[in-house]
Design a protein that fits this description.
The structure holds 2 protein chains of 2 kinds. By secondary structure, chain A is of the alpha/beta class. Chain A contains 13 helices and 10 strands. Chain A has an 8-stranded parallel sheet with strand order 1-10-7-6-5-4-3-2. Chain A has a two-stranded antiparallel ribbon with strand order 8-9. In chain A, helix 4 crosses helix 6. Chain B has a 5-stranded parallel sheet with strand order 2-1-3-4-5, with helices on both faces. Chain B is globular, with a radius of gyration of 19 Å. The N and C termini of chain B lie far apart (52 Å). The chains are: A alpha/beta, B alpha/beta. Chains A and B meet through helix 2 and strand 9 of A and helix 1, helix 4, helix 5 and helix 8 of B.
């Protein structure tokens, strides 16, 4: 248990992660269309501020500004040759802020999806994905990240490739998928399937879970799916601050700090050990979440009905787990399989 | 599996078409190519092969994607099988002057670098028999207008993943209006943070929740356009 995250987990019932990266950076003047990772080199003070916002709001863990820092994503900005540099800087700035926090704060090196689709339909292969993630992981490691934090993944192949990259880099890691399609990931993975997948890896993550997706209710239902799968591993919940709404020419996430505080407590009571936000989650949300987690006593595990009553309804009737496996098609099916 | 021994050439037309629907569902490209060849050899017009065997089969795939029975990996395999059939049919469709399914110009809007959802829509539209011109990410209004004109497109598809870039769709639609071109195109919009209300507010023809809905919506709008032209 030599890593900072495992040490913190051993001493605390829950840890709070951070909120949005993109939403905060846009507020600081990032022009949409630009790669946020460039700011690690060009605007280091703003990235320090981003990290400090999370730390000051009470986060025990924050993610580095490196979500799109793999060669495939950076290539869109003709910066594929800067993978190591931009990731190293993302982590080094984080290290600085964490070490000055005056309490243990974990620097989690964010690794997002490549955005590519696996062969045969797409161009991505296992070896290529491992190579890209490994390159990014080495940069984050060199900058001083405590753990790698693989997030918003939808394909099981990509999740496995990231795990292998963590092994090659000799880094502990965490991994979350985004369950945004009828309770599953875009590629059809259910919460139960992810819970089973992580245990089959040669180097399982310290913690695993869900991030982003469709609002807090759906994410909570996914958590219950992990718990029902019987996992002993710490579970991560990083949900969006509600759902974006278009209102008189402006777009904003409809999740209030009060709602996110409610979500944080429900996530803890459902069994999550690491609780944070994702898109739309600002410092004021984090502060409300931290205060609620510290002051409200643990309660019984919420049911899907409790969750809907507190946070609103679900985006789909089923999430493909348990007795209700969702609709199927009766068909001739003489060839498949 | 003994059932694998289906001899497509031994099936009646009706059975073969049903089998092709199944084979599309299962993403079996070679079988689809063989089926297309058999129907053509039996004197089917290319247009009938396209609509009765391929498009009808992909409609089932699309419905099951919409209903959460199939997911992206299966749908991509089906689209790939469909593309195999289309490659055979395309020159024949042109040569016989068959009605076109339609042409779409698609791209992620200016300021937005997300493209996986847009890529899925492009693949499924191609799978459904549409011609697709993919402009990639970060497209300014001029780029859309120029491509629509150059390609003689029927449909404009715009995608955005960020709340900060969604409003740019309105900029593009407003430019079309200013130039008096809005009525020439079916404008479909999509992306995770969008919804129907937003689509209406910016003056798009429709918001499409996912790639399957995009295909169905495109088909119904094109059908309406054809009806209006022949009326």
């Amino acid at each position: 248990m030599s890593d900072a995250l495992s040490r913190l987990l051993a001493t605390r019932p829950w840890l709070m992660a951070d909120g949005a990266t993109g939403t905060n950076l846009f507020n600081m003047g990032l022009a949409s269309g630009d790669a946020p990772e460039m700011w690690n080199a060009d605007q280091p003070d703003k990235i320090r501020t981003l990290y400090r916002l999370a730390v000051d709001a009470g986060s025990d863990i924050f993610l580095t500004n490196s979500f799109g820092g793999n060669a495939s994503r950076l290539k869109l900005h003709n910066a594929q040759s800067r993978v190591h540099e931009l990731n190293r800087l993302a982590a080094a700035l984080g290290r600085e802020v964490a070490d000055a926090a005056g309490r243990p704060v974990v620097v989690a090196g964010s690794i997002g999806p490549t955005g590519d689709i696996f062969a045969p339909m797409g161009t991505l292969t296992h070896d290529l994905a491992v190579e890209m993630f490994h390159e990014q992981a080495e940069g984050l490691k060199a900058g001083g990240a405590d753990v790698l934090w693989v997030e918003t993944i939808s394909a099981p192949e990509e999740f496995k490739a990231a795990a292998e990259a963590a092994l090659l880099a000799g880094m502990p890691w965490c991994g979350t998928m985004s369950f945004d399609t009828a309770g599953r990931t875009m590629m059809g993975v259910t919460s139960a399937q992810l819970a089973a997948l992580v245990e089959k890896l040669p180097n399982p993550p310290i913690a695993f879970g869900a991030n982003c997706g469709v609002g807090a209710s759906d994410l909570m239902r996914t958590l219950l799916g992990f718990v029902a799968a019987g996992t002993e591993r710490p579970i991560i919940a990083k949900g969006n601050a509600g759902i974006p709404k278009y209102h008189e020419g402006h777009i904003h996430y409809d999740g209030t700090p009060e709602l996110m505080a409610e979500y944080a407590v429900l996530a803890r009571d459902a069994g999550a050990r690491i609780i944070g936000g994702c898109c739309g989650t600002m410092p004021e949300h984090l502060k409300a979440m931290r205060a609620a987690l510290e002051t409200r006593p643990p309660g019984p595990r919420p049911t899907v009905e409790d969750i809907a009553a507190h946070l609103g309804g679900y985006s789909s009737a089923s999430d493909g787990t348990g007795d209700d496996e969702g609709p199927t098609r009766e068909r001739r099916g003489r060839r498949r399989g | 599996m003994a059932d694998d021994d289906i001899i497509l050439a031994d099936l009646s037309d009706d059975e073969l078409v049903l089998q092709m629907h199944d084979d599309l569902y299962d993403g079996l490209k070679e079988e689809i190519e063989e089926g297309v060849g058999i129907l053509l050899a039996r004197g089917w017009t290319p247009y009938h092969v396209l609509t009765k065997a391929l498009v009808a089969g992909m409609t089932i795939v699309g419905a099951d994607f919409r209903d959460g029975i199939l997911f992206v990996p299966e749908v991509l395999l089906a689209a790939n099988a469909m593309k195999g059939g289309m490659a055979i049919l395309k020159p024949l469709l042109i040569a016989t002057g068959a009605p076109r399914m339609g042409k779409m110009v698609i791209g992620t809007v200016k300021g937005d670098i997300h493209d996986i959802g847009k890529n899925l829509v492009a693949m499924m539209m191609e799978g459904a028999g549409f011609e697709v011109v993919d402009l990639g990410i970060n497209n300014a209004v001029e780029k859309y207008l120029e491509a629509l004109e150059r390609e003689g497109a029927d449909i404009l598809g715009m995608s955005a993943l960020l709340t900060t870039t969604m409003p740019y769709m309105k900029v593009v639609i407003d430019s079309l209006k200013e130039k008096g071109l809005r009525e020439n195109y079916i404008v479909l919009v999509g992306g995770a943070p969008l919804n129907e209300e937003f689509g209406r507010a910016i003056g798009a023809d429709a918001y499409c929740r996912d790639a399957a809905v995009a295909v169905e919506t495109a088909k119904s709008f094109i059908a309406r356009k054809h009806n209006a032209l022949s009326a």
